[in-house]
Each structure stands twice: as structure tokens, then as C-alpha cells.
Amino acid sequence: MKTPGIANLLAAVLTLTLAPHAQTSRGTVSGTVLDQSGATVAGARVGLIGVDTGVKLSTESNDAGVYRFDAVDLGVYRLQVAQPGFRTYLGAGVHGRPILD
Questions:
Q1: What CA–CA distance (Å, rounded) separates 41 from 16?
Q2: Per-residue pLDDT reduced to its tens digit, 51-68
């Protein structure tokens, strides 16, 4: 739900996971887009930009505010979340690393 006026978007519950014994070096980035009041934001444009590679991935948050990127290569990424009526959220230094037991 959008709040009136300009508010900040928060990208919460950001996770990057890799199966530790998988035959791949890719993972998943997912999270929930929330406004300042904690309400979910549906239809937000979410971008993931590789700092070293310049690779750009994009998706939109669903009705529950959830977004997901699959098959993300390991590396450092910037996260950008935009929605009309809100300030754009810019997150830096999202690291993709394998999770070890």
C-alpha cells in the first residue's frame, strides 16, 4: 500500500543464497519491498546491477511486495528499487557469496 506524498522505499529481507554442494556458482537474491510504515509495496521496479560486470537484472515486486532474482552469479551488486510517488532506494555492496555449512 502506498502512503500519500513522498516516502522512502526500503528493500527488506534481502537474502542471497547458494546451495553449498550444488554444481553451480549461482544463487538467488530475494526480498520484500516495504515503505517507511512497514507496508508492502506491490509493482515496484527492482534492479540488480553487477558492480564489476555491469550486468543488469530487473524484476517487479509482486502483490505481497516480494521480488526474486534466480541464477545470480557470485559478485558484488547494487540494488535499486523505484516506484512512482516514492524516493528511489539505492543499496550498495550486496555481496553474493556461497553459504558454507
A1: 21
A2: 889 999 999 999 999 999
